[in-house]
Amino acid sequence: MRVDHLAERLHSITPFYVMAILRRAKELEALGHAIIHMEIGEPDFPTPPLIIDAGIACLQSGQIKYTPAAGLPALRSNIAAFYQQRYSVTVAPERVFVTPGASGALLLALGLTLNPKDTVLMTDPCYPCNANFVSLLNANALAIPVTAATHYQLTPELIDDCWHPGVKAVLMASPSNPTGTIIPPLQFQHCIDAVQRNGGYFYSDEIYHGLVYGSAAFTALTWSDQVFVLNSFSKYFGMTGWRVGWLIVPEAFIEAAEKLAQNIFIAAPTHSQVAALAAFEPATIVELEERRRQCSERLDFLYDGLCRLGFTVPIKPEGAFYVYANCSAFTDNSYQFALDLLETEGVAITPGIDFGRYRANEMVRFAYTLPIDTMREALNRIERFIARA
Ligand SMILES: Cc1ncc(COP(=O)(O)O)c(C=O)c1O
Hints:
By secondary structure, the chain is α/β, with parallel strands linked by helices. It has 2 domains: 3-46 and 284-388, Aspartate Aminotransferase, domain 1, CATH 3.90.1150; 49-281, 3-Layer(aba) Sandwich (Aspartate Aminotransferase, domain 2). Helices cover 41% and strands 14% of the residues. The chain is built from 12 helices and 12 strands. The strands form 3 sheets. It has a 7-stranded mixed beta sheet with strand order 2-8-7-6-5-3-4, sandwiched between helices. Helix 6 (156-162) packs parallel to helix 7 (185-197) and helix 10 packs parallel to helix 12. The relative contact order is 0.17.
């Protein structure tokens, strides 16, 4: 088979550098080394029991047929009710599309709005798949360097400065991956205003909502019903592998979203949707809130520990489960730093180059999806590594 038959878009789709770290970590584990994984972006907690029970009951019924493309009506209603209860925002269930994770939601939102060569503005650093999804649709991602001064988020000024006739949309995530920072409400509102004033679409990735430890995270729907909101059962609800999330679309897009969803994935997995119905049970929420409390303690522990070792974290994260730390006190090549740390001390972390280009060689991401005792051991190892370097 000729490799030059590969689609051209593959040239602009980047691999994850962390995969090389993960591969090496697995090799070292196979050789008997105790690796501490701080590179992986998924909760260590198991899926809550009520969700598992509901999934098992569904599987045992044998009725694992397709659901409607937009999802189970009961789940769409539950999600809509969740917005009323958590954010005091009214969302018609018809605007809710259940998708295979936030990934499916992103594909649906982009597919509904982008033409080839359109440009989507996003932050540098940001979740690496964003730009790759945009490339998949033969559109362009323009990643705008952001710093701690703006909470690693866009501002209306940045949006206005970067706007040109090819720009079609802006994608923002709060809390952000990899920085864990939350956009202040006024900045958020003004960003949405700026995008709408320029005639663009606004996609708000709210997948880390629920995992917030300081000020509340606002949904973009607080200020406008003309935005696309992506969310998922993966992170806060502990359901990464179930592959179920959702997209909220403006009313005018309902029909088109239905048509596109039917074609790109037919429907999200049925048993996962049934299981997700139990995600909103009060007992599940109690458990998830306890996990959130634990995550908050983990954040404090890791943040303090990294600062003590000489990493710089210019703004303390307030959400998600990541600390994006500057390691320039120890290296000018954060990828090599991550490789060497893994090789010598068995701690796996993600290099900044996975999230963008801007000062990426100075940055690494630590995921605190681990118990505090394990992180204590990780910090001891990192301290030893730095002392030797
Ligand atoms: C910011 C962000 N958006 C979207 C996703 C995709 O999540 P999923 O498809 O599991 O819902 C991730 C996964 O790590 C993420 O970090």
